[in-house]
Design a protein that fits this description.
This protein is an alpha/beta fold. Helices cover 34% and strands 26% of the residues. The structure holds nicotinamide-adenine-dinucleotide.
C-alpha cells in the first residue's frame, strides 16, 4: 500500500492537473461511466463536528474509493484547517487498499477546479470583474483557479468578518489585480462572475442584485440547511451542477426545490456541457448558476493523479499492509 502525505500532495499536483482530472470525471459521470454512492454526513455531537463519507467508482479512470472526513469549526484556533479528510483508494479488481492519501489540500484543489470548470464552460468570454463572497480557507484557492479562466481586471469581495478579506487581497495583489472590499449589493452590481464559498445558512446574494449575464458558482452549500443565495435567483438562472442527486438534497438548489420554484428536470449536469450534449450558456444576458456540491469522484480523481505523480517522482511511501 502507498501512503501519500499532505505535503507530497502539495508538491505534486497543481491547478492544471486538478482541472483536467475533475473535468474528466464530470464527463465520465455524464456518460454513465462513473457514479457516486450516497453521501453519509452526520453531526457527531462532539466538537460541533460534521463527519462523513463520500465515495464512488469511476470505471473510465478505474478509481474506486472513499473520502472520509468532515468539518471541525474549532480547528482554526488549534492551528489546523477546519476541514479534515483522508482519501482511501482501492484496487477495483481485488478490493485491496491501494493508497492512503491526505485529503485536506486535495479538497481545496478539487473544489477550486470545480468552480473554475464552471467558469470555463459557462461564464461570458468578456467577464472582467470577479466577485468573491466568503474569505475562509477555500476562498483563496477558488480565486486563484478562477483567475486563470478569464481575463479578469478586478476582484471585489465581501466577508461577514471583513478582517478575513486580507487573504484574498494578498492573492489579488499576487495576481496583479486591483482589489476592493464591497457590500454584497455592490458586489452583485459589479461582478461578472461570482463565487460564493461560505458556511452561511441564509441567502447572502439576492436576485435583484445580480446583473444579466452573470455566472455564479455556489460552492459553500454542501449540507442540508446551508444556503448562500436567494431561491428566486436560482429560479431565474439557468442551473447547472456537478450531480443532480446531491444538488437537490444537500446543495444550494435544495431550497428552490423545497419551495417548488424549480423542477429537477431544469438542472443540467456540467458533464453534459463538457461532453457537448448541452450547449451551456445560450445568450449574453442569461444568468448561469453552478451548484458545486462536491462529489466523492472529484476526490478520487485528484487522488489518483497524485498517486501516479508521486510514484513517478519517487515520493510515495510503500507500506506493508
Ligand atoms: P472556513 O471555515 O475556512 O470559512 C468559512 C467562511 O464562511 C468564512 O469566510 C466565514 O466568514 C464565512 N461564514 C461563516 N458563517 C457565515 C454566515 N453565517 N454568513 C456569511 N458568511 C459566513 O471554511 P472553508 O473551508 O473556506 O469552507 C467554506 C464552505 O465551503 C463551507 O461551508 C464548506 O463546508 C464548504 N465546502 C464545500 C465544498 C464543495 O465541494 N462544494 C468543498 C469544501 C468546502
Amino acid at each position: 500500500m502507498l501512503v501519500i502525505s499532505e505535503e507530497t500532495c502539495q508538491q505534486v499536483i497543481g491547478r492544471a492537473d486538478a482541472f483536467s482530472a475533475v473535468e474528466g470525471v464530470f464527463a465520465a459521470m455524464s456518460n454513465g461511466d462513473a457514479y457516486n454512492f450516497p453521501v453519509i454526513r452526520e453531526a457527531i455531537g462532539h466538537a460541533d463536528a460534521l463527519y462523513g463519507f463520500k465515495s464512488g467508482f469511476d470505471r473510465a479512470g478505474m478509481a474506486l474509493g472513499v473520502k472520509s472526513g468532515g468539518y471541525w469549526p474549532g480547528n482554526m484556533a488549534k492551528g489546523l484547517t477546519n476541514h479534515q479528510s483522508t482519501i482511501f483508494l482501492f484496487d477495483p479488481d481485488t478490493g485491496k487498499l491501494k493508497a492512503l492519501v491526505g485529503g485536506n489540500y486535495l479538497t481545496a484543489v478539487r473544489t477550486a477546479a470545480s468552480s473554475s470548470i464552471s467558469i470555463n464552460h459557462l461564464a461570458r468570454r468578456d467577464a472582467r470583474v470577479i466577485g468573491m463572497v466568503g474569505a475562509g480557507h477555500q476562498a483563496t484557492f477558488q480565486l486563484r483557479a478562477a483567475a486563470e479562466q478569464r481575463n479578469f481586471e478586478k476582484v471585489v469581495a465581501w466577508n461577514i468578518d471583513p478582517a478575513m478579506l486580507s487573504g484574498l487581497a494578498d492573492v489579488a495583489e499576487d495576481l496583479g489585480l486591483p482589489f476592493e472590499a464591497v457590500e454584497r449589493k455592490q458586489l452583485g452590481e459589479q461582478a461578472d462572475v461570482i463565487i460564493t464559498i461560505t458556511s452561511a445558512h441564509e441567502p447572502l446574494m439576492m436576485k435583484d442584485w445580480i446583473k444579466p449575464g452573470t455566472h455564479i458558482a455556489c460552492m459553500g452549500t454542501d449540507t442540508k440547511g446551508k444556503q448562500e443565495v436567494d431561491p428566486a435567483l436560482v429560479a431565474a438562472a439557468t442551473v447547472f451542477t456537478d450531480e443532480i442527486a446531491q444538488s437537490i438534497t444537500i446543495g444550494e438548489i435544495q431550497h428552490a426545490i423545497a419551495e417548488g420554484l424549480i423542477d429537477q428536470s431544469a438542472i443540467t449536469p456540467i458533464g453534459d456541457v463538457i461532453n457537448k450534449k448541452y450547449p451551456g450558456r445560450s445568450s449574453d444576458d442569461e444568468i448561469t448558476l453552478f451548484d458545486g456540491t462536491g462529489v466523492g469522484l472529484q476526490d478520487l480523481a485528484v487522488a489518483s493523479v497524485v498517486v501516479k505523480l508521486a510514484q513517478e517522482q519517487g515520493k510515495a511511501t510503500e507500506v506493508d499492509f
